[in-house]
Write a structure and sequence with these properties.
This protein has 224 residues and is α/β, with parallel strands linked by helices. It has a 5-stranded parallel sheet with strand order 6-7-8-3-9, sandwiched between helices. Strands 2-1-4-5 form a 4-stranded antiparallel sheet. Helix 5 packs parallel to helix 6.
Length: 224
């Protein structure tokens, strides 16, 4: 497989959020928030339920637009980057879309083929080993346990050759052993020079991300 560099230029700002808000009707679901993440850095987005964590991630992903303020990713307004530079952004916002008749290994192989010439590796087998999913490599997504399904979703998302990775609570449904694996995979992605924005309730993952960047704490609605 041809190797390719998925990292940004060292020090390059890949996410730039300036006083962004989001209002639905008369309800403010995200208070003014600012955030800057460079290549090789991470941001842990934390706060109670209803504080706007998923909303902020959707703004960074370009899946929604701010009511006020600005959100830029990869040098463009995020909603434009979503269309013009989608190959550089990998998202896990909810469940992973899958084909019911493709195995776990075939899903990863599909990713490597789709990005042929730009995919840096590792091989499918190595990626499955890193995620501790070798045992289920030939199973279909619908046959996986809840924890296996979540780990598969994280592994498949990180297998994309993307410079920016946005993850919404990747630790959900994972027990202590799986969470340790998830933290290792996320750490490796940062080592590769990617920028990560991760909403999380997991104290260990939060600490790992803070050591490699910053923590963005969002307030509960009643505290704004």
């Amino acid at each position: 497989m041809t190797s390719a560099d998925t990292s940004g230029t060292p020090g390059e700002v890949l996410v730039d959020v300036e006083a962004a808000t989001r209002t639905h009707g008369s309800v403010q679901v995200l208070a003014p928030t600012s955030l800057r993440v460079r290549a090789g850095e991470a941001a842990a987005v934390v706060g109670p339920n209803g504080s706007g964590k998923s909303t902020l991630l959707r703004l960074v992903a370009g899946a929604d637009e701010p009511t006020s303020g600005s959100v830029r990713t990869l040098g463009l307004p995020a909603h434009e980057a979503r269309l013009r530079r989608r190959e550089h952004v990998a998202l896990l916002l909810g469940g992973l879309p899958t084909y019911h008749d493709l195995t776990v290994a075939e899903h990863l192989r599909l990713v490597s083929v789709a990005w042929a010439g730009r995919h840096p590796g590792p091989s499918v087998d190595d990626a499955l080993e890193e995620a501790e999913l070798v045992r289920v490599r030939d199973q279909f997504p619908g046959e996986l346990s809840s924890g296996e399904s979540q780990m598969f979703a994280l592994a498949a998302t990180l297998y994309r050759p993307a410079r920016l990775v946005v993850l919404d609570e990747p630790e959900q449904r994972l027990d202590a052993r799986w969470r340790a694996v998830a933290r290792r995979l996320v750490g490796r992605a940062i080592d590769q020079g990617r920028a990560l924005v991760v909403a999380t309730h997991d104290a260990g993952l939060r600490a790992d991300l803070a050591a490699r960047g910053r923590v963005v704490e969002l307030a509960a609605p009643g505290e704004r």
